[in-house]
Amino acid sequence: MTFNTISVIGLGYIGLPTAAIFASQGKRVVGVDVNAHAVETINRGDIHIVEPELDAVVKTAVQQGLLRATLTPEAADAFLIAVPTPFMADHQPDLRYVKAAAESIAPVLKAGDLVILESTSPVGSTEQMVTWLAAARPDLRFPQQGEQPDIFIAYCPERVLPGQIMLELVKNDRVIGGMTPECSARASALYRIFLQGECVETNARTAEMCKLTENSFRDVNIAFANELSLICAEQDINVWELIALANRHPRVNILQPGPGVGGHCIAVDPWFIVAQNPQQARLIRTAREVNDAKPHWVLDQVKKTVADCLAQSNKRASEVTIACFGLAFKPNIDDLRESPAMEVAQLIAEWHQGSNWVVEPHISQLPAALTTSQLVGTQQALEQADILVMLVDHQAFRAIDGGQLVQQWIVDTKGVWR
Ligand code: SAJ
After folding, report:
1. Among 13, 22, 267, 300, which has the highest number of CB atoms less than 10 A from its own CB?
2. Residue 275 and residue 372: Cα distance in Å, rounded?
C-alpha cells in the first residue's frame, strides 16, 4: 500500500493540521476547500486559523512544494474528509457538507483509492457516504456490495484538543472504523505515516459512536459539576472546595464548573446521539440542557450582585460598571466561537444600563455582538469597575491575587478568586 498523493477535503481546524503533518512526512498533499480565501492563504504559506505551531509546519510544507491547496478535487491515492457536521435548528445532524465533499471527490476516484471520513458524524454516516459515492460512480465497486471493493472506506474520527492539535494529532491513539477489515488495515497504514499512537481497529458504526461517546462523556461530567455549582450556591457551600475534597476519594474525579460548555464539539456532538435515540438518551440530553442553561444562571447571579451593590452603595444602576473577565470558549485561547463567556457578556450587556467592560487579553477588538461594551485592560477593570465577573480562567487572570481585589462584588464562575 503506497500513498503517493493524499488529498484532504476541508482545510479547517482538523483538515489543515492533518494535511500539514502528512506533508511534513514527505508526502505530496493536495488540500481542497470551498473557501477561496483559505486556499489563497495556504498557498502563500500562511494559515487562516489560530493553532499553536501550525503556521511553521504549513509554511515549510508549502515552501517545499509538498502541500498545495485548491478549490477543486484532484486525483489522489487517499482522500480524508474533514468538513463540518453542524446540527440544524431541531438538533438534527446536518450532513450536507459531507455529501457535497463525497460528491466532489467521486469524479476523480480510481480503483484502489482509500476514502476516510473524519468529521464527527451520527452512527450510519459512513454507510450513507458509501451510498452517495456509489450513486455517483456506478462503474466502481464499494465495500457495501459484498465483493472485493475497488474503493476502500473507513471512518476515523479526529480526537485532538484545540490548542494542542499538532501534538495530539501525532500522539493520540486513533480509532479506525473500516467498512471491512481490509478497509481498516489500509486506513491504519495511512495514519501510520505520521502516528506515534496506536491504530485501534473496529467497524465504522462503532468508530462513529466512539467519537460521540467521548464528547458526551465529557459533557455529562461537566454538567454534573455545573449542577453541583447551582446546588452549592443554594446551600452556601464553596463548590470548588467541595470538588477538591470529593476528588480526594480514590474513585471520584469531578470536572470543573464554569459559565457553560462551549466550543464546536462538546456542545454539539451529544445531540447526535439524542437525535438518533430520543427515548434512550435521557441523561445525555439532560446534561446538554444543564450546560446550556448555565449562562442564564450566571446572569441571574450578576443581577443579584448588582441589586446588592445598589442596596449597599448610593449609586444608581446606570452608574454601576460591570467588568467581564474573559470571552474565549476556554482558557488561554482566542477562539470566541460558541463561547458561553461571550453569551454571558452579551446577556449582561443587553440587560445592564451602566457601563459594560470586557477584559480579554487574547483579542484586540470586541466582536460585533458586543458593540455597546468596551474592551479595557486588566488594570483598569481591577481598579475602576464596581462588579467583577470572572468567566474564563486564562493564566493571566489566575495570576491575579484574589486577596488583593478591592471589589466587594464578584461573580466568579471559575473559582479563581475565591
Ligand atoms: N469545560 C468545563 N469544565 C471542565 C472542562 C471543560 O466547563 O472541567 C468547558 C470548557 O471551558 C469549554 C468546553 O468545556 O467551554 C469544552 O472544552 P474542552 O477542553 O473540554 O474540549 P474541546 O471542545 O476543546 O475539545 C473536545 C475534546 N474532547 C474530549 O476531551 C473528550 C477533544 O479531544 C476533541 O477532539 C474535540 O472536543 C473535538 O474536536 O471533538
Report:
1. 22
2. 37
Residue recorded with cell 476528588: 247
Q: How far apart, in Å, are the Cα atoms of 261 and each of 268, 330, 350, 417? A: 10, 9, 21, 20
Catalytic residue among 156, 183, 211, 324: 211
pTM of the model: 0.95
CATH label, 5-197, candidates 3.40.50.740, 3.30.420.40, 3.40.50.720, 3.40.50.300: 3.40.50.720
Measured by CA distance, the residue closest to atom 37 of ligand 1 is 265
What is the average per-residue pLDDT within 298-318?
96
248-412 CATH fold: Rossmann fold (3.40.50)
Q: Pocket residues for ligand 1 (CB within 6 Å)? A: 120, 158-162, 214-215, 218, 222, 255-256, 258, 261-263, 265-266, 329-330
Q: What is the pLDDT of residues 85-104, one digit of tens each?
A: 998 888 899 999 999 999 99
pLDDT of 399 strictly over 80: yes
Burial code (b: 16+ CB inside 10 Å, e: under 16) for 98-123 equals bbebbebbbeebeeebbbbbbbbbbb
**pLDDT score of 418:** 74
| Mean pLDDT of the residues in the chain | 96
